Each structure stands twice: as structure tokens, then as C-alpha cells.
Amino acid sequence: MSEQTTTTTFGVTGMTCGNCVRHVTEELEQIDAVKSVSIELVTDGASQVTVVSDDEIPADTLRHAIDEAGYSIVV
């Protein structure tokens, strides 16, 4: 039996460097269901963040993690 995962992709504004990527990644990895985080950095726009998790993560949980890192999710 294969393990099922959920992939969530969203935009985050305000990230300008590798340190920003690290902060966002660390905050998201603290969420229990998160298996992996990948970020395509866009310094002059919304960076694309992809989260792979065991279960669907509520939008409020993701938003809180991004807020804690000091950035904003693009709606």
C-alpha cells in the first residue's frame, strides 16, 4: 500500500535571499504533518512555496507559520 501525501502551493511576498528561504522553511517544517518544503525564490515578486504533507494543512496554519517567519501569503 502506498503512502498518500498532499501537495500545497502558494505565493509568499517579501523574501529576498537564501536567509529568507531558510526562515520560511524552518517555520513550515515545525508543522507536524509537513514532510518537505521547496521554495522558488522570486526577489521582486511572490516566491512559490510548495509544501508536501501527510494530510491537508489548514490555510490558517500555513498563514500563521509564514507570519511567524515575517512574511505574507499572497491570496
UniProtKB/TrEMBL annotation:
PROSITE patterns: HMA_1 (PS01047), HMA_2 (PS50846). InterPro entries: Heavy-metal-associated_CS (IPR017969), HMA_dom (IPR006121), HMA_dom_sf (IPR036163). Residues 6-74 form the HMA domain. One of its GO terms (molecular function) is metal ion binding. It comes from the Bacteria. Keywords: Metal-binding. The keyword Transcription does not apply. This is Heavy-metal-associated domain-containing protein. The lineage of its organism: Bacteria, Bacillati, Actinomycetota, Actinomycetes, Micrococcales.
